[in-house]
Amino acid sequence: MAEREEAATAPDPDYTGFIHNVKQSTGIDLAQYKEAQMKRRLTTLRMKNGYQSFSDFFAAMMKDKALFYEFLDRMTINVSEFWRNPNRWEVLRDVILPELQRSGSRLKLWSAACSTGEEPYTLAMILSDKNILAQTGILATDIDDGALAKAKQGLYLERSLKDVPKDVAGRYFTPEGPVFRVSDGLKKNIDFRKQNLLLDKFDEGFDLIICRNVMIYFTEEAKNKLYHKFSASLRPGGYLFVGSTEQIFTPAQYGFESTETFFYRKK
Fold this sequence. Notes:
The protein is α/β, with parallel strands linked by helices. It folds into two domains: 13-75; 86-266, 3-Layer(aba) Sandwich (Rossmann fold), CATH 3.40.50. The protein is 45% helix and 19% strand. It is built from eleven helices and ten strands. It has helices at residues 2-9, 13-26, 35-48, 54-63, 65-76, 86-101, 118-129, 145-153, 166-172, 184-187, 220-233, and strands at residues 107-111, 136-142, 155-157, 173-176, 179-182, 190-194, 206-211, 234-242, 256-258, 263-266. The longest helix has 16 residues, at 86-101.
């Protein structure tokens, strides 16, 4: 039994080499992600595309842009919905934003790891309904060019809209056959950019940073690094909004205090 367990946890030089090559070529550090989850996901992708080893898969990925984008999609789990966990967005609308508005200055907001855009567009809908969208800056970033392209295009299947209040959906989406197009009024107020959260330097002075359902894929070391970076990027009194499975158990070590559930204010 002990021998079998040791074999199961022994380093895999093929996968270790893949991690090294990806970091050298792209700056993406897969070692910062939980290994069992990431390796399982990428093994499925490799085998689906007919490659016997990760070294062969990497070589093909570097030559085939479509395969590389498929790798990014699988790595970053681009699954999202508008108004995901609606009651948390209601807290943002009814409690957090009014508090932030009291400063009287232009709000600076960031949707980090925005995937295909559902999150920043949800934020834009709320701001538009409060008549402050045009006076607010929204940055939306992701590591995946393919996801960003979809976000900028703004076309979504009906299932992505299942939690959007019907009156809100009617104001901001236009049906086009089997898909729905988000309004240009929302699009023009969001700045979509490519960014590697672990590697790149962050801007500062944000009133609100939204980073939801992403941290669960990172190692504890990577999470710790990111929470410190997010804290440094917020102005005092600014908020970090995290996902429903990403509670920060010791927020004070990052300069945060817990207020509403899954909202952390910088002291």
